[in-house]
Amino acid sequence: MAEILYEDNHIIAVYKRSSDLAQSDKTGDAPLDVEVKKYIAEKYKKPGEVFLGVVHRLDRPVSGVMLFARTSKALSRLNEMFKTREVKKIYFAIVKDRPPEDEATIIHYLKKNETQNKSYAYDNEVKGSKQASLTYKLKGRSEKYYLLEVELHSGRHHQIRAQLAKIGCPVKGDLKYGFPRSNEDGGISLFARRLEFMHPVKKENIIITAHFPEGDIWSIFMDSVS
Questions:
Q1: What 8-state DSSP symbol labels residue 144?
Q2: One of 8, 25, 29, 59 is an active-site residue; which one?
Q3: Which class is 4-224 in CATH?
Q4: How many percent of the chain have pLDDT more than 90?
Q5: Are the C-beta atoms of residues 131 and 109 closer than 8 Å to each other?
Q6: All structural domains of the chain with their residue ranges
Q7: Which terminus has fewer CB within 10 Å in the chain: N or C?
Q8: Do the strands 63-69 and 130-141 form a parallel or antiparallel pair, or are they unpaired?
Q9: How far is Cα 103 from Cα 150, in angstroms, rounded to an integer?
Q10: HSE-CB for 179 with a 13 A CA cutoff
Q11: What span, in angstroms and rounded, lies between the C-alpha atoms of 173 and 183?
Q12: Which three-class secondary structure string do you get for 93-115?
């Protein structure tokens, strides 16, 4: 079972590994939401079908905080909060090349290619595109790589991956967006570090933080982040 990061009667957050599938797809692999449902059913001895709402999605090769709703009320309110950008989403990405600026907010227009399951970033609006915005900060560097902290302002398909690639900084291991080599574990070096939001029922400020992925590449940067 995935590691539980936060749990109450209304929401549950788990640590998604880079190999985990967030929700069912054509691969037929067991998704994380099914695993969490089974955990809830066993822990609380719930008969019948367990309700679990997928609030947001992380790409399969991405690790970090994954949030689910345990009630329909929490799901509808969280969906609205994500839609209106009331949820603060912080990621970390390891890239090979230094970004053009040490800190910047970048805006592109993303268009998804369904056949390729890939999004293309444009400087100007094109037919079928959606505006995407994020802020990055350079937080550390090693002999070969740079660590970026990313705050996501919108939630487009492959947004961070596409936007960073557009400015010449594809995420380490991300072959789809131009990085030359894959990571050994098949994942990419993009990590959903923290979610911050108002609890949908209790109306308390909630901050859920995940531990950094294991591996030498992340440990190099541990002194650079809080």
A1: S
A2: 59
A3: alpha beta
A4: 79
A5: yes
A6: 4-224
A7: C
A8: unpaired
A9: 10
A10: 24
A11: 5
A12: EEECCCCCCCEEEEEEEEEEECC
**154 vs 22: CA distance, rounded Å:** 19
Q: What gap in Å lies between CA 120 and CA 137, rounded to an integer? A: 22
- Report phi then psi at 152, rounded to 5: -90, 125
**Over the range 98-132, which residues count as b (16 or more CB within 10 Å of their CB) and which as e?**
ebeeeeeebebbbbbeeeeeebbbeeeeeeebeeb
Q: Is 59 a catalytic residue?
A: yes
The model's pLDDT over 194-209, given as tens digits with 9 standing for 90+, comes to: 999 999 999 999 999 9
pLDDT in tens, 126-145: 999 999 999 999 999 999 99
CA 66, CA 1: separation in Å to the nearest integer?
A: 14
- The residue with tokens 């190099």 is 220
Residue 110: alpha-carbon gap to chain centroid: 17
